[in-house]
Design brief:
Elements: E1 4-10, E2 13-14, E3 20-25, E4 30-40, E5 48-65, E6 75-80, E7 84-85, E8 93-95, E9 99-104, E10 120-135, E11 142-143, E12 148-158, E13 170-172, E14 177-180
Antiparallel strand pairs: 1-4, 2-3, 3-4, 4-9, 5-6, 5-7, 5-10, 8-9, 10-11, 10-12, 12-13, 12-14
Amino acid sequence: MAGASFLKFLNSGTGKTGRSLGISDGAIYRQNAVELQFEIDPAATKSYRNLRPKQWAGTEAVWIKTGHPLTVQFTLHRRSNGSGADDPEAQNIFTSPTLIAYYDAPGPNVGSFLTTRPSRLYVVQNFTGWIVGDPIKGGVPEQLCEVAAWHSIVSLVDENWADANAVPKWQRTYGNKSSLGWGDTSKPPPI
């Protein structure tokens, strides 16, 4: 493969897409915002057009605790092989002649846990990203670099876990991160 190479994984500050990176908490989502950057070989544009990022959502696991967040054990709520193709949306892509970057912000929708009312959530999501291009001579898109594997882990505790009538108050706790490599979906954290 030639034409592109993985350059950087960013999880803080602001990247080429202009989006803030790191913790990204909204009303119902708790996310880890990241940017992946790929260097483009200028020679690639002589053989390929429409260079663009691709992403695959791989294995994921959701672990929960119901009851005291320090004394009860995590149980597996859901595990899957992932949703598959998860290409970045156009507004989350930066393209220049020598660089392609894309933004993503995975993480759980905490509103989806209102009926189970867990005291802790531990969510591991795995992804791969790469660059493809359409051959100028025609044919199907070709992969132009090795995949970059990365993961996001969101670890939360509901500060109102003991009051079933209170609105959940989710706070981040030990174990939050996003990084290169594959996250372990086979087990929750020790505590």
